[in-house]
Amino acid sequence: HPTQSGASGEIEFIPANFSVEVSAPPSGRNFFYAGEFFDVTLSALDAAGLPIPNYAGAVSIGASSALGLPLEYAFKAEDQGRKKFTLSVWADGTYSVQIREAATGLEGTSPAFEVKLAIITVISTAAPIGTTEVQVILTDENGQRITAENSLTFEITLSEEIQDGSASLTG
Q1: Strand-pair partners of 17
Q2: φ, ψ at 79 (rounded to 5°)
Q3: CB under 8 Å to 97, separation ≥6 — which residues?
Q4: Cβ atoms of 16 and 53 closer than 8 Å
Q5: Per-residue confidence (pLDDT) for residue 136, from 0 to 100
Q6: Do 76 and 58 touch, CB atoms closer than 8 A?
Q7: Are 73 and 95 a contacting pair, CB within 8 Å?
Q8: Of 11, 43, 49, 88, which has the fewest beta carbons less than 10 angstroms from its beta carbon?
Q9: Do 53 and 80 meet the contact criterion of CB atoms below 8 Å apart?
Q10: What is the residue-wise DSSP string for the chain?
Q11: Residue 128 confidence class, pLDDT cut points 50, 70, 90
């Protein structure tokens, strides 16, 4: 038997499907608060539904500009067929992310996800000289007090009417 050898040209890996996944909101709710971080993951999938590790195609991204995603993304070798974007949006609303590969016309769309506003209200801001307690409440977009959160992070900034360094935050 004669032996033959040869070289192939470039091999192109074509996905069977695309998926767009959004990380789940914190336990106990089905939405994100404005300013809260979440992940959006774009995946090029094979026929078994697994990421194609050597996919190197480009997709166009359709999403609200409030999400801050690029209009296009070209998958790189280090992506291994999955690209995760960590996002934070400051506008309330219902969002989704769509991707489309022009070469094949294949598309993927995330489930819709909701972002709501939360407003921090300071109940007491003035105090006599000495130690004081300031109450802060969190309300939703309808002005209703939010009582179910146990892991929401926010920042408090202290300012003095007379800048003499006599005020400080503890805790």
Answers
A1: 45
A2: -70, -25
A3: 20, 22, 40, 42, 61, 62, 63, 67, 69, 109, 110
A4: no
A5: 74
A6: no
A7: no
A8: 11
A9: yes
A10: ---------------SEEEEEEPPPSTT-SSEETT-EEEEEEEEE-TTS-B-TT---EEEEE--GGG---SEEE--GGGTTEEEEEEE--S-EEE--EEE-TTT--EEEPPPEEEE-EEEEES-----SS-----EEEEETTSPBP-S-SS---------SS-SS------
A11: low
Q: Which residue has the tokens 């194609």?
A: 52
Tokens 């995946």 found at: 43
Tens digits of residue pLDDT in 62-84: 999 999 999 999 999 999 999 99
C-alpha of 150 from chain center: 20
The Cβ of residue 115 has, within 10 Å, a number of other Cβ atoms equal to 23
Report whether pLDDT(87) > 70. Answer: yes
Sign of CA dihedral 46, 52, 54, 56: positive
**Virtual torsion, Cα 43, 44, 46, 48, nearest 10 deg:** 10
Given its phi and psi angles, is residue 151 left (phi above 0), alpha (psi -120 to 50 degrees) or beta?
Answer: alpha
